[in-house]
C-alpha cells in the first residue's frame, strides 16, 4: 500500500525514539493488516478535505503506541533492563554486572525483587506491575480498544514508573553482586554505590554530582562536563540528576543493610 509506505519514516522515527527500530518491518506489516482490515470492513469513510493518508497515519500512531507499550513492558523480564525514549543507546545498560556464580537462584531472585520493591516504593512498584500485566494488543497484530488508552495519563505514568523500577532492579542487582563479591570497602563505599547504577549517564552523575554533594553554581558547572562525556545535552543531564540521586540512595541502602553501622559514611 502506497499510503503505508508514505508513513514509514514516521514509524521509523517513533520506534527509534523508543529503542525498537529493529522491529520496523513487523510494525509496518501490522499497520498494513490494520489498514486492510479497516478498509474491507468499511471503517474508512472518505471525508472532504481529509486525505486517506491521514487516516492511515492515525492507525499507524495507534499500532506504534500499542507495540511500544507491549514491547517495553515485556522487554527482558525480570526487570534487569532499562530504556529511554530520548536516549535509548545511553540509557539501556550494556555493561551491567552479572550475578556472582552460585547465587542466581530463586531465593536470590526473590531477594532482588523484594529489595527493588522496597527501594522503588509501593506506588511506583504497583504502577509498573499494572503495565506489566496489561496487554494493549489483540494478539493479531491489530491495535485493540486498549490501545486507545495508551496516551492516557495513567499509561504514561505507568511507563515512567516501569522504567524507574527496572533501573532500580539493575541497581539492586549490581549492589548485591558487589556485596557478594566482598569488594565493598568501608573507605570507598559511597563511590562503590555510585558504580552500581544502571547506565553510564547515571553513574557519571552520581560520581560527579551526587557523591560530592555539589549544589548551586558547582552543580551547574558539572552539567556540561558530564554532557560532553556522555554525548547528551546538559539539560538532559539536569533532568536525570534526580533519577540518579534516587538510584544512588537505593544502592547505598542495599549496601548499608550488609555493612556494620560504622562502615557507613555519615
TrEMBL record:
This is Sigma-70 family RNA polymerase sigma factor. InterPro entries: RNA_pol_sigma_r2.
